[in-house]
Design a protein that fits this description.
The structure is a single chain. This protein has helices at 2-24, 39-66, 77-99, 105-132, 141-164, 169-187, 191-204, 212-222, 228-235, 242-262, 267-288, 299-310, 316-341, 352-372. The protein is mainly alpha-helical.
């Protein structure tokens, strides 16, 4: 009876795979970007992107906490989760590139360049760790290449969905989710300071998050003993102005672009709320699993509300000028409030002028970019049709 049971189970397991292959193979034909894409294929491709980017978020969230506890390990579970997501990304990039389905030429180039930059950054990061040992900051060049590659890749996916998805609630929700993934990727390096400030608190309580082997390794690399000054240098290596300036000038640009492209009131606030809610959700999960926890950027909500308020001004240039001032004020005031009532990384309030000036520059650039490439509110121009058959 065993062979018969095994055969039935094998047949049951293979049947979905055979069905999937039978459905997909007719689409595996060479084509140029922008070719007509059947609706079911379009949905499957972008569902694949949603799964890949979700795995990336889960892996990266665990990864930053992991590295505040354990000495680096190439085969650490967070890296393995990210690897699965990367495999899906590479597969989707190949499918888009070969068949031309689901993307126009611009979206495909962004996806290909972003994936390429990411894949190049992975071995560079490994070499960096082999040569230099522990990489103390998430702001290192090899790490930034990973974020930049991912940002370009997500930008291509946003473009592809924006141009190809039919009008409706699903299109809007998915576009918001893609910008949420983009915001998480953009915010990621700032988590070093958010975890770092709690790492210092843990040391002061006499219950350091980091294992002794990690503390000793970091101390040896710095050429000093394991003491509070070493822990501060390990936990907060970046200058105090970097966190608020980056959050205000760079991360807010993601929300400005989201508001421009989605075209719905309060979309920036909803995306920011989604990210903050996710950080709140994983906070107790990490604590229960005995991993380091971090400050949660609640102040992001105040800045996001200011972004949406600015869009009541209809003149783009005036909106950028007033919006940059409003968002900068909202960001710094909210951050100071959080610093007083809860906890946050150190901040330099004198950096607000620089942050506001940078935000104005990138906001004006974003307004021009969206207008130049007709990405405002709803797709126009070339569209990936969802009516063809393979």
């Amino acid at each position: 009876m065993k062979p018969r049971t095994s055969s039935r189970m094998t047949g049951w397991a293979r049947s979905p795979l055979k069905s999937a292959a039978a459905w997909a193979l007719p689409y595996w034909t060479r084509g140029e970007p922008g070719r007509e894409t059947p609706s079911d294929l379009f949905r499957v491709l972008y569902l694949g992107w949603a799964v890949a980017l979700t795995l990336k978020v889960l892996g990266s969230s665990w990864d930053v906490s992991w590295h505040f506890k354990w000495l680096r390990d190439d085969l650490a579970p967070p890296h393995l989760i990210n690897t699965v997501g990367t495999v899906i990304v590479v597969a989707l990039t190949i499918v888009h590139g070969y068949t031309g389905y689901g993307v126009d030429r611009t979206a495909l180039r962004l996806i290909q360049v972003g994936t390429g930059v990411f894949l190049v950054a992975v071995p560079l990061d490994l070499i960096n760790h082999r040569v230099n040992g522990l990489d103390i900051t998430s702001w290192s060049p090899s790490h930034m290449l990973l974020y930049i590659g991912t940002a370009l890749m997500i930008g291509g996916v946003i473009r592809g969905w924006f141009v190809g998805a039919p009008e409706g609630r699903t299109r809007t929700v998915m576009l918001g989710a893609l910008f949420l993934f983009c915001l998480e990727n953009t915010w990621f390096p700032s988590q070093h300071q958010e975890y770092g400030v709690f790492g210092i608190h843990a040391w002061d309580r006499g219950e350091p998050y980091a294992e002794p082997i990690l503390l000793q390794f970091a101390a040896d690399q710095m050429g000093r003993s394991v003491d509070r000054n070493m822990v501060v240098a390990f936990s907060l290596p970046a200058p105090d102005y970097l966190y608020p300036v980056y959050a205000t000038a760079v991360c807010m640009l993601v929300l400005v672009l989201a508001r421009l492209m989605i075209g719905r009131a309060w979309s920036a606030t909803l995306i920011a709320a989604g990210y903050v809610a996710y950080r709140v959700l994983i906070w107790p999960l990490l604590m229960v699993a005995d991993f380091p926890i971090s400050a949660v950027p609640f102040f992001l909500l105040g800045a996001a509300v200011c972004v949406d308020l600015a869009f009541y001004i209809k003149v783009p240039v005036l909106r950028a000028v007033v919006g940059a001032a409003l968002v900068t004020a909202g960001s710094y005031l909210s951050l100071n409030l959080q610093h007083t009532l809860l906890d946050s990384p150190p901040l330099a309030n004198t950096s607000a002028i620089a942050a506001g000036g940078l935000l104005l520059a990138v906001w004006l650039g974003g307004e021009w970019f969206v207008q130049r490439y007709r990405l405002r509110g709803q797709p126009t121009g070339a569209r990936v049709s969802a009516t063809a058959t393979p």
